[in-house]
Amino acid sequence: MTDLNSGHIPLSLLPEVRRGIEYRCFCPRWRIQDITVGELWEMFDVRWAALSEERLDKDLETFLIRDSIDLAETTVQVAALHQGRVLGGLRVHLAQVGLLKGISGVQISRVGVHKDWRGKGIGHTLVSKAVHIARDVAVDAGLNLIFLWGRVVGGRDPKRVLRLYERAGFMRTSRFIETKGLLNCLMVATVRGTPAEHLSALGFRVTEVRDANDASATSMLVIFDADSGGRTADRRTSSD
Ligand SMILES: CC(C)(COP(=O)(O)OP(=O)(O)OC[C@H]1O[C@@H](n2cnc3c(N)ncnc32)[C@H](O)[C@@H]1OP(=O)(O)O)[C@@H](O)C(=O)NCCC(=O)NCCS
Questions:
Q1: What pLDDT does residue 238 have?
Q2: d(CA 186, ligand 1 centre) in Å
C-alpha cells in the first residue's frame, strides 16, 4: 500500500518481516499507510488492553481522546502483525519533555504487546524499529533528542524492565514521574553526540554514574537544572 511515488520515504518506515511477524507503519506526513483503518483500530485496542493492565487508562475512549497525538500528521504508528492479526504496536511522535523544562524531542510511547505474545522479542523489535523511525522524524524536524518513559511497575525489577529500552540504545536518567503508584523513568538517546553533550549544551548539568555494587549495570545520567544549585527535582507526581 505504500505510495512510493509520494516522494522521499525514509527506509525506516518501510515494512519488514522478522521471524514471520510483520512490522508496518501508518503516517500521514510521509504518506505511508501500510496498515488498514481496521488494523489501526485493532492496534489501539491491543495497546489499550496492554497499558490498562496497569490501570492507567480507564477505558478505550479515554485512551484515544486523552491527547491529540494520535491525530497529528507527523505521528508514526507502528504495528506488529501475524497472519492479519495485530500483536502489538507503539507510536513515534514530536513532544516536549516537561521534566526538562519543556525541551523538544521525538518520543516513543504507548508500547504494548498482546499478553499472549509477550517474551518473544516483539517488544524489542518494535522499540528497535521505532528508534530508527525516531531518528528520521528527528532529522526531519531538526531535533536531536529521542526519549521515552520506561514504566517501572510495582514488584518488577527496574533493571530488567528498563533493559528493554537500554538494549535499543536508550540511557536511563535520574528523572522520574510518579503516576498513580507507577514510576516512569525518563530514558534518552540522541541523533548526534551523546545525551550528556546534548543536555549540557542546553544548560543542564549532567553526571554519568555507575552502580558501584553491580558491575554489569549500565550507567545512569543524573541531571541537575542549571539554576538548581546542585539540587535535583527528579521525582514528581504528575503526568508529563
Ligand atoms: C513491555 C512490553 C511491550 C514488552 O513486550 P515483549 O514483546 O514481551 O518484549 P520482548 O519479548 O522483546 O522482551 C521482553 C523484555 O521486556 C522487558 N519488559 C519491560 N517491561 C515489561 C513488562 N511490563 N512486562 C514484561 N517484560 C517487560 C523485560 O525486561 C524483558 O527483558 P528480558 O527478556 O531481558 O527479561 C510488554 O510486556 C507489554 O505490553 N507490557 C504491558 C504494557 C507496558 O508495560 N508497556 C510499557 C510501558 S509504556
A1: 40
A2: 16
The residue with cell 507510536 is 91
Q: Residue 136: is its pLDDT beyond 70?
A: yes
Is the C-beta atom of 18 inside 6 A of ligand 1? no
Cα 36 from chain centroid (whole Å) = 23
C-beta of 143 in contact with ligand 1 (< 6 A): no
How far apart CA 75 and CA 90 sit, in angstroms, is: 10
| Triad 90, 106, 74: Cα angle to 5° | 75
CATH tag for 11-237 (out of 3.40.50.2300, 3.20.20.370, 3.40.630.30, 3.40.190.10): 3.40.630.30
User: How far apart are the CA of 161 and the centre of ligand 1, in A?
Assistant: 7
Average pLDDT of 35-56? 88
The pair phi, psi for residue 22, each rounded to 5°, is -95, 140
Average pLDDT over residues 184-190: 95
239 has pLDDT over 50: no
Tell me if 153 CB under 6 Å of ligand 1: yes
pTM as predicted: 0.90
- Give the domain ranges of the chain: 11-237
Ligand 1 near 119 CB (within 6 A)? yes
**Least confident span in 123-127, 171-175, 188-192, 211-215:** 211-215
